[in-house]
Structures are given as structure tokens and as C-alpha cells.
Amino acid sequence: MNVTVFGATGAIGSLTVDRLLAAGHTVTAYARNPAKIPARWGEQVKVVIGEVSDAAAIDDAVAGADAVISALGPSMDRKATGTPLIEGTGHILDAMKRHGVRRYIGHATPAVLDPQEKPTLVTRLIGFMPRTFMPRAYDEITGMSNQIMSSGLDWTIVRFIAPKDGAPKGRVRSGFFGTDKLGFAITRADIAAFTADQIGESRYLRRAPAISN
Mean pLDDT in the chain? Predict the structure, then answer.
């Protein structure tokens, strides 16, 4: 499949591209800084450079795709202003609709609830902390997710709490708070693998599974 990845040079995004390439997919990577493109990709990856506000560049990146993965996430810098990822996600979704691309996979935290999930102590806590101490980032991630869930596309939002570096464990728990046994920590490599693998899965279609090791 042809897969366009936004946030492709980030810690999780670059590993997601690696996983897609290993699975035989054709990848278009959207990035802001060409200097951050990993040399290991060589000529395997088509690269489109642009900001999340650049609707024309986003349209170019999405054209010809079978699926879109977004590893974009809000800045944790307290000096950051505005909610650029809400605008950027809107451009991505608009481009997908123009080009007839239906499959979207993105990321969030349990501050965003699955449509069929009821709040639990964990989701209340995960929502309270950013809402209280990082309200701009909270508004951005919830605003992004609300757009995706109401888009009418075939979306999956992968939620996680405590990403960490390290080798993949290869053991991922997935499901929903209040019904499934879930932990907190998960390696970025396992997040990337789970995200990339959703391309060919329908189990979590229009759902927002939480994952942990």
C-alpha cells in the first residue's frame, strides 16, 4: 500500500516509517525539516517538506495514498502558543476527502475517550493533569481527535500514556479502560509497530484503543 506519514521524523514517526518499509509498503514522509530525514531511508521514501499550515504541500503528500498515518502530537513547550495541529489535521482530512483516501491512523492519550468508553479513574487523571497544567496541549489533542472522529473516514486513534525509548518488547496489550487490563508504559518502538500494523487491520475501525506493554 501507499502510505503517507505525517510527523515522519519524530521519535515514533521515524520508527513507524521503518516498520512500514519492512512490511513492503511504499511510504511518503511529510516533514518540516529536511535535515532530520534519516539517512537510512535513502531513496526508499518520497519526502515532502512543509509546515502543518501548508495545505498545498499536504495535498501533494496525500495524493495517491491508500492510507494516512499521523504521528503528530502537541508541543509540550510551555511557551508554545496557538493550536496549529488542529488546523493541520483539518488540512490532512480535507486532502484525504479530495483524493478519496479513507484510512486514517493517528495518536492521542486517554484524555481522549473512545466513543464507546466510559470515564475511569485513569482517564479522569490523565485528562485532569494536562487540562490543569498544559491546557493548550490538552485543547490541541482533543481538538485534533474530535475532528478525526467526526470526519466520517475509517479512522483509528492509538492512545498511550507513558512512551519510553528502548528495544521493542513485542508484547502489546490493547483495549479500553474499564473493560480491559492495561498498563501505563510502552516503548516507542512498540507504539510504532502497532500503529503501522493497523494499516491492514479492521478490529479497531472507528475506535480508539489504548495500548501498553
Answer: 95
